[in-house]
Design brief:
- The protein has 404 residues and is of the alpha+beta class.
- The protein contains 15 helices and 20 strands.
- The protein has two domains: 249 residues, FAD/NAD(P)-binding domain (3-Layer(bba) Sandwich); 136 residues, no CATH class.
- The radius of gyration is 24 Å and the shape is elongated.
- It starts with 6 loop residues before the first strand and ends with a helix.
- Bound molecules: flavin-adenine dinucleotide.
- The site of flavin-adenine dinucleotide (FAD) has 38 residues, from helix 1, helix 2, strand 7 and helix 15.
Amino acid sequence: MTPSPSTVAVIGAGPAGLMAAERLAQAGLRVVLHERMPSVARKFLMAGRGGLNLTHSEPPAPFLNRYDAAAQGRIRDWLDALSPADLIEWVEGLGQPTFVGSSGRVFPKAMKTSPLLRAWLARLEELGVEIRTRSRWTGWQGEALTFDTPEGERIERPDAVILALGGASWAKLGSDAAWVPALEGAGAEVADFRPANVGFDVSWSPLFRERFAGTPLKGIALTHGDRTVRGEAMIAAYGIEGGGVYALSAGLREAVERDGSTMLTLDLRPDLDIEALTQRLSKPRGKDSLSNWLRKAARLDSTAVALLREGGPLSADPAQLAARIKGLALTLTDVQGLSRAISSAGGVALDAVDERLMLKARPGVFAAGEMLDWEAPTGGYLLQASFASGVVAAEGVRAWLDGR
Ligand SMILES: Cc1cc2nc3c(=O)[nH]c(=O)nc-3n(C[C@H](O)[C@H](O)[C@H](O)COP(=O)(O)OP(=O)(O)OC[C@H]3O[C@@H](n4cnc5c(N)ncnc54)[C@H](O)[C@@H]3O)c2cc1C
């Protein structure tokens, strides 16, 4: 008689859990995937609203550098297990062609999650993965797992477990970090969750807020401390958000938390040096209003001009004007909360798991995805690491089961 396959409980049906489930089922294991929400992958679907930036096309070294320094050693191994090229091949294998956008970011041509997710779920069904929605993991009872389900409490005793419970942002999509006490109780260190890829408060004048909230600042450079990034930002009613801000958000968040506020400097014309800009601004203004003339001479749009005016009265002196355009200082007074953040920093300490992502305090239990303590800017790095860590955890489970 052939022995029945081992059963693995994968808990959390986001990108990390679904990827782990696929790999385990392909290896012939019986997989039960538990998801607390009524449907799977809600955050993954939400990511599709912005086009679904799956990964990035940049070379391996700068790619790895996008992650926080403390996590890079681990993430290098994850990217070896599932590289950006592997991820693209996998997406295309699900019938979703991809393309590289002008910024080097990689998207599915469909620019949304739903067709990819549909094909993926069909594959998982074919592989025999059992998906149980409305099944919320609540902790352990001895060695057994406990779940809150519409039929009441369920107790399961799988041979191995992968936790892929997500971070703590956008809790309404499912990842609410309610699991933290259970893991701490099991002896795993969990770093406090903090908002990442998040906007910051700026006290705009009521007029500016009313007229310009929701308008973008394109093709700018943003500087905080010794870091400068090119990108765009978005004026929000509460302050400022968008890709360029997110790229700096780890340092900005730490400075605001430490000092109560911090300065973000915008260069509204990064392609012109200050001398060239001063020269342009030295041309006679004629009958134009200052705003119109700035629009023409410095090629600034109306949001940028209004933003310059937010910083106080504008000098008519070309050199001073050029300096303001290339070094517009904004005081950030607070960080938006976790409910508005694209991702979160914090989570299960990387020291609490071994290189196969098994909890040192709980053999046979693995963790993957954003619930681990790493962070990265937007640009596809979040999904790439979530998928890749799902692969590592699945391989870890196989090796552990083989070794038993
Ligand atoms: C608006 C938005 C846009 C984004 N856009 C992008 C993008 O374009 N590119 C990119 O790289 N990243 C993007 N992200 C981030 C990306 O979606 C996440 O990093 C990724 O989904 C994390 O995957 P995960 O599987 O670790 O966690 P999640 O996707 O959060 O999945 C975790 C799952 O676990 C479930 N769960 C939690 N607790 C329990 C429990 N106790 N029992 C059972 N189930 C539980 C949750 O309901 C959830 O379904 C975006 C995020 C947001 C919010």
